[in-house]
Design a protein that fits this description.
Blueprint: H1 4-15, E1 32-36, H2 40-43, H3 47-55, E2 59-64, H4 69-73, E3 76-79, E4 88-92, E5 98-104, H5 117-128, H6 134-146, H7 148-161, H8 169-176, H9 191-201, H10 203-210, H11 218-229, E6 234-238, H12 260-268, E7 282-288, E8 312-314, H13 316-322, E9 329-333, E10 338-345, E11 353-357, E12 363-365, E13 371-373, E14 399-406, H14 408-431
Parallel strand pairs: 1-2, 2-3, 7-11, 8-10
Antiparallel strand pairs: 4-5, 5-6, 7-14, 9-10, 9-14, 12-13
Helix pairs in contact: 1-3, 5-8, 6-7, 9-10, 9-11, 10-11
Length: about 425
């Protein structure tokens, strides 16, 4: 989706029945949502608003290997194979000007009832009638086995005859070239086109990396074969530093630092409009990086060797002033919502500033038919409109909050929930 941010705003605003200033842009009501391998019910600011929006949809589908919070809200869940059960890729440019690519082979067969994503989409497109018929697929498959170049020539003829096939070209390769690849690497077939595009766009860099003088289109096939054979990854382009400015795609060959929308916004900044709200006197860093936290990756709680509760770190003087206790529980509230967090005294924190880690708050099976929630689900308290006005990036590092100690029955319930998380972590750790 070209403008996912606007589409998501449409989903939240329109389905919740709220008005939004569109700055002249047309608002289109979103009636269906398709989510793959992500969990916006946890990762998107203003979780309550997202939950209300997705419930108002006519259709919602989630493709994932885990039963996430978003999956729990969806009309349909299509279970995908796990990372070790399917072909996947890794692309790194940490060693620039040498760039690495890794086609990772599966280690195990998918569990019954699960499928790799390419197979899920191929079956859906077939059921929708958006792929060619069996005879055409068989023709292309035979050409792919004999001569990939002729297969591509025939594919481009089909695209000219039926332009609606262009958007599903990747699935066409999967169903035709895919079955001819060794070791069941059908999912790598769409990368064939990418290899040829790379070879044409960066011919010298590819030749240098592969130590070959082959020219396009043969170079694209050489790159593809190298990718299939390199089970530990390989360098696919090797640039020289004096080639860097050739990679700048602006017509003038320059890097454009001026962003008109940003400059206009900076000129309109008004400090008077940015006064603190006395009802929310603390500033929360909602997303502190710690030793054992990660972005929203579905993991057993046993993975965290410390900080199992994702504690609220706060200066000891602030704990005392609030009447709280180190190791106790604190309610963290905003105008959006409220969560209860473990308290951890931290003298390194500045007074008035508190911190919570990201990557917590996921629902995980407890092994007994129930589920646990491991730590704070941060986006229950973030606001959709407390964000950068241009990119809509939430101000997670600067959230105004109100703090209050939690005691009595609510504290006992929080302690019991924490004990369940620790018990599941201990059981998983002992099993490992």
């Amino acid at each position: 989706m070209a403008d996912w941010k606007q589409a998501f705003c449409n989903l939240c605003y329109v389905n919740c029945g709220l008005e939004v200033a569109t700055e002249g842009r047309k608002i289109t009501r979103v009636r269906a949502l398709w989510v793959e391998s992500t969990n916006p019910a946890n990762t998107t600011a203003d979780t309550p608003r997202f939950e209300a929006a997705i419930r108002a949809l006519d259709l919602s589908v989630v493709v994932d290997g885990a039963y996430t919070e978003t999956a729990q809200l969806a009309d349909y869940v299509l279970p995908a194979a796990a990372q070790y059960e399917k072909w996947e890729t890794t692309l790194f440019n940490f060693e620039w000007p040498r760039n690495f690519f890794h086609l990772r082979a599966p280690l195990f067969e998918p569990l019954p009832g699960t499928l790799p994503e390419p197979e899920i989409y191929a079956r859906l497109l077939r059921a929708m009638g958006d792929l060619p018929g069996d005879d055409t697929l068989a023709e292309l498959r035979a050409l792919a086995a004999a001569d990939r170049g002729k297969m591509m020539e025939r594919a481009f003829q089909l695209f000219a005859e039926n332009p609606k096939l262009v958007p599903v070209a990747a699935m066409l390769l999967y169903r035709t070239l895919g079955p001819t690849l060794p070791d069941g690497a059908a999912a790598a077939a769409p990368l064939y086109a990418g290899c040829h595009q790379t070879a044409m766009a960066h011919t010298v860099a590819v030749q240098r990396a592969l130590k070959t003088t082959a020219a396009p289109p043969l170079l694209g096939d050489v790159l593809f074969e190298k990718m299939l054979a390199s089970r530990s990854g390989f360098v696919f382009t090797a640039h020289e530093y004096d080639e860097i400015f050739q990679l700048v795609k602006h017509r003038d060959g320059k890097i454009h630092l001026a962003v008109p929308e940003l400059l206009d916004w900076l000129a309109r900044l008004d400090p008077a409009g940015e006064q603190d709200d006395p009802a929310y006197p603390f500033t929360l860093v909602a997303g502190q990086r710690r030793m054992y936290n990660a972005n929203q990756i579905f993991r057993t709680p046993a993975w965290r060797k410390s900080d199992p509760d994702g504690a609220l770190r706060i200066h000891p003087d602030d704990i005392a002033a609030l009447g709280g206790t180190d190791g106790g529980w604190m309610a963290v509230s905003t105008r959006t919502g409220r969560i209860v967090c473990r308290v951890e005294s931290d003298p390194s924190m500045r007074r008035g500033l508190v911190a919570l880690p990201h990557g917590y708050g996921q629902s995980y099976p407890d092994g007994k038919g129930g589920r646990i929630v491991d730590g704070p689900r941060l986006n229950l308290i973030t606001a959709h409109d407390d964000c950068d006005p241009i990119a809509a990036t939430p101000y997670h590092k600067n959230v105004a909050v109100h703090l209050a100690p939690v005691v009595g029955a609510e504290a006992k319930a929080a302690e019991a929930a924490s004990a369940r998380v620790r018990a599941v972590a201990a059981a998983h750790a002992s099993a490992a």
